[in-house]
Design goal:
This protein is α+β, with helices and mostly antiparallel strands and 470 residues long. It has helices at 36-42, 52-55, 125-140, 180-189, 192-206, 213-233, 284-300, 306-335, 345-359, 363-369, 382-396, 402-409, 417-428, 433-442; strands at residues 18-20, 30-34, 68-70, 74-76, 79-81, 89-96, 102-108, 123-124, 147-160, 163-174, 236-237, 259-260. It folds into 2 domains: 10-174, no CATH class; 178-410, no CATH class. The radius of gyration is 22 Å and the shape is globular. The structure holds adenosine monophosphate (AMP) and magnesium ion (MG).
C-alpha cells in the first residue's frame, strides 16, 4: 500500500491532550459501505479496495497514521463530567485533502481506550449505519457536518440491552474533533498553558483571522448560530447537544438519538434519555447559546484581565439569540420563497408553523407542497391554511423567483425515522439494499427521485423514540 498523505498536527500537541494507542483488531472485518467521493477528496483512495475492510476496521494501520484517543470533558444534560474523552473512537490522523482542506480520519467503535469508563469501546451496526446515512444526508442538504467514509462489520457480537448485536466500525471524517468539552477539561483543571495551546491551535486550524480567545468565541458562536438555524429549517433534532458534542468547527457531530421530525411540533423530543425535553426541537437555539456560554467560561480562564474578558464574552453571548433568530428567519423565509426577508416575515413563518403544529402536518411535505395545488391537503383546518396562503401569496408577489428558491430549500426527501429503522433491521439480517436505496435518494434530496421515501410513516410505522444505542 502506498503511504497516504497523513499530516498529524494533533499528535504534535502536548501529551496531556490525548493517549496514544492503536485500535483493537476485530475478528472478521467486512466492508459494508464506502464513500468513493470522500475517499477521493481525502486521498484515502490510496488504500487499495482489497485492504479497505482491514484499514477501516483498525486491523491494519495505514502508513503515516499516529493513532490516539482524544481527551475532553463536557456538560452532559447540564451536569459537568470532568473526564469523557474518546471512549470508543481513535483518531488515525489528519489528511490534507485534494481540496486543500485538513480533515481528521477517525475510527468509531474501534475498541477500548483509557477513556472508556464502563463502556466496551465498541459500536453496533445500527448506530453506525444511522450515522453514516444521516451525516451524508445532512451534507447533501448543504448543512455543515462530519462525513462518513466507511462502515465495516467486525464479525463480532457486542452486548447491549437488546442482547447480542453485530458490531461495526464507522470511519468518520471531520474538519476536526475539537469540542467545547476539549476547552472545558483544561479550564476546569486550571491548566492554563494547555488551554492557551489549545486556543492557538483552534484558531490556526479553524479561525485563522481570529486575534485571540474572544475572537475565537465570536467565530464559533457565528458558526453555531448558522448551524442551529439550518437544523431547524429541515426539522432536525440532534438529541444530545451536550458540550462534548458541540464542535468548534461548527459541524454537526455525533449522530446518536437524532431524528428528523415527521409531524411538526416545536416540543418534539425523540431521545429516550431526554426525559425533560432539554434537547427538544424548539429548545435547540437556547441550548446552543448555553453551550457557547460554557465555551466562553472556559476561554476566559486564560485571560489576564478577567473582568474585561467577562464583559466582552457576555456581550458576544448576549448577541447570539439575535444571530440565531436572524439566520432562522433567512432560512425559513427562503423556504417560503422569500429571498430578502424583513422583520415582519417572522410572523408569516410562525403562523404557518403554528398551523402545522395544530394540525400535526408533516413538516417536510408541507413545505415541499407549498406552491402546489395540493398544499392545503397537508392541513386539516383548510380554511385557516387558505387564509394564511392568501397573505403568503401577497408577500411573495414581488419576489423574483420564489418557486425556484423553494425547490432548492425544501427537500423532497429526508431520512425518516421509520425508514432508518427498517434499513437497520434489514442490514442486521444481511440485506443492505434498503441502505443503498436510501443513500441514493438522500444524495439528491431536492429531487423527487423516489416518492415512496417521501411518504410519512403509517400509524404502525411510527418510531416514537430513538435510543443512544451506544
Ligand atoms: P456520546 O453520547 O456518543 O457523545 O458519548 C459520550 C461519552 O461516552 C464519550 O466519552 C464516549 O466516548 C463514551 N462512550 C459512548 N459509548 C461508549 C462505549 N460503547 N464504550 C466506551 N465509551 C463510550
Ligand atoms: Mg460524543
Amino acid at each position: 500500500m502506498k503511504p497516504l498523505t497523513f499530516d498529524n498536527s494533533y499528535a504534535a500537541l502536548p501529551q496531556a491532550f490525548y493517549s496514544r494507542l492503536n485500535p483493537t483488531p476485530v475478528k472478521a472485518p467486512r466492508l459494508l459501505a464506502f464513500n468513493d467521493d470522500m475517499s477521493y477528496l481525502t486521498g484515502l483512495d490510496g488504500v487499495p479496495p482489497e485492504d479497505r475492510a482491514a484499514v477501516f476496521s483498525g486491523n491494519q494501520l495505514p502508513e503515516g497514521a499516529a493513532p490516539l484517543a482524544q481527551l475532553y470533558a463536557g456538560h452532559q444534560f447540564g451536569t459537568y463530567n470532568p473526564q469523557l474523552g474518546d471512549g470508543r473512537a481513535i483518531l488515525l490522523g489528519e489528511v490534507l485533502g485534494r481540496d486543500g482542506i485538513r480533515r481528521d480520519i477517525q475510527l468509531k467503535g474501534s475498541g477500548p481506550t483509557p477513556y472508556s469508563r464502563m463502556g466496551d469501546g465498541r459500536a453496533w451496526l445500527g448506530p453506525v449505519l444511522r450515522e453514516y446515512l444521516v451525516s451524508e444526508a445532512m451534507h447533501a442538504l448543504g448543512i455543515p457536518t462530519t462525513r462518513a467514509l466507511a462502515a465495516v462489520a467486525t464479525g463480532e457480537d457486542i452486548w447491549r440491552e437488546q442482547g447480542a448485536l453485530p458490531g461495526a466500525v464507522l470511519t468518520r471524517v471531520a474538519r476536526s474533533h475539537l469540542r467545547v468539552g476539549t476547552f472545558q477539561v483544561f479550564a476546569h483543571r486550571g491548566e492554563v498553558e494547555n488551554l492557551r495551546t489549545l486556543t492557538d491551535y483552534a484558531i490556526r486550524r479553524h479561525y485563522p483571522d481570529a486575534k485571540g480567545p474572544m475572537d475565537l468565541l465570536r467565530g464559533v458562536c457565528a458558526a453555531q448560530a448558522g448551524l442551529i438555524a439550518q437544523w431547524m429549517s429541515v426539522g432536525f433534532i440532534h438529541g444530545v447537544m451536550n458540550t462534548d458534542n458541540a464542535a468548534i468547527s461548527g459541524e454537526t457531530i455525533d449522530y446518536g438519538p437524532c431524528a428528523f421530525m415527521d409531524a411538526f411540533h416545536a416540543g418534539r423530543v425523540f431521545s429516550s434519555i431526554d426525559q425533560q425535553g432539554r434537547y427538544a426541537y424548539g429548545n435547540q437555539p437556547n441550548i446552543a447559546v448555553w453551550n457557547m456560554a460554557q465555551l466562553a467560561t472556559a476561554l476566559i480562564q486564560q485571560m489576564d484581565d478577567k473582568d474585561a474578558a467577562v464583559a466582552e464574552a457576555t456581550e458576544v453571548i448576549h448577541a447570539m439569540p439575535g444571530q440565531i433568530e436572524e439566520a432562522w428567519r433567512a432560512r425559513f423565509a427562503a423556504k417560503l420563497g422569500i429571498a430578502t426577508p424583513v422583520a415582519d416575515d417572522t410572523a408569516l413563518i410562525e403562523d404557518l408553523l403554528a398551523l402545522m403544529q395544530k394540525d400535526g402536518a408533516d413538516f417536510t411535505n408541507s413545505f415541499r407542497a407549498l406552491g402546489k395545488e395540493t398544499a392545503r391537503d397537508q392541513f386539516t383546518d383548510r380554511e385557516a391554511f387558505d387564509a394564511w396562503a392568501t397573505r403568503w401569496r401577497e408577500r411573495i408577489a414581488s419576489e423574483p423567483a420564489p418557486l425556484a428558491l423553494m425547490q432548492a430549500t425544501n427537500p423532497a426527501v429526508i431520512p425518516r425515522n421509520h425508514r432508518i429503522e427498517q434499513m437497520i433491521e434489514a442490514a442486521v439480517a444481511g440485506d443492505m439494499a434498503p441502505f443503498e436505496r436510501l443513500m441514493k435518494a438522500l444524495c439528491t434530496p431536492f429531487e423527487e427521485t423516489d416518492p415512496e421515501l417521501a411518504r410519512p410513516p403509517a400509524q404502525d410505522e411510527i418510531v416514537p423514540a430513538t435510543f443512544c444505542g451506544t
